[in-house]
Amino acid sequence: MRLVVSRYGIAMSANRPLAAEEVVATAGEREVLEAFVDYYRQVLVGKLAGLSDDDVRCRLVPSRTTLIGLVKHAAAVERGWFHHHLAQRPREQIDANSRGDDASWEVAADETIADVVAEYEMACTESRRIAARMAIDDTVPHPHLGRVSLRWTYVHMIEEMARHAGHADILREQIDGATGD
To answer: What InterPro entries has UniProt attached to this entry (predicted)?
Structure first.
């Protein structure tokens, strides 16, 4: 099995992304958490592969959820947890949505898959940079939770991204029958 490192830092076989547990099954806590976050980031973006801009905008459920909207929303969630909360940047100093609210699902008519994926990749790159400056036990103030640690943020992001990867699984299967990572 040939392994390479994807743009998300995830090991890939020649045919499929390796699950996070396959990559770091004996690693330390931080490496395991980072691998799972990156794995679900990759899976979410991978759900857009091979589809047209019309396909990814298709609404197949009553909510605003679309494949491209999931990635747009995920970028906002990255900016909210890493850029705003962990880096303590005021939201006004963050270039795009950092709330993960209803508006974070909206994709402009002129935005392409490439545009939204690039936005997400930039948000993830900055998230990794912020996290790299912190120890796993470092905490920051949070307006509703008191304080949150980098560890808690990683676990929350795994929860968030895995949930949305599941949504993306269902939408992609409805569009063209494709299943799996």
So the answer is: DinB/YfiT-like, MST-like
Q: How many independent structural domains does the chain possess?
A: 1
Q: CATH number, domain at 74? A: 1.20.120.450
Spatial separation of the C-alpha atoms in residues 148 and 85, rounded to whole Å: 9
Nearest 5°: CA angle at 110, between 109 and 114? 115
Task: Identify whether 24 is part of a domain.
Answer: no
Q: Going by DSSP bridges, is the β-strand pair 139-142/4-5 parallel, antiparallel, or unpaired?
A: unpaired
Report the predicted TM-score, pTM, of the whole model to 2 decimal places: 0.87
Residue whose token pair is 């390796």:
18
Integer angstrom CA distances of residue 135 from 19, 32, 109, 150:
25, 14, 40, 7
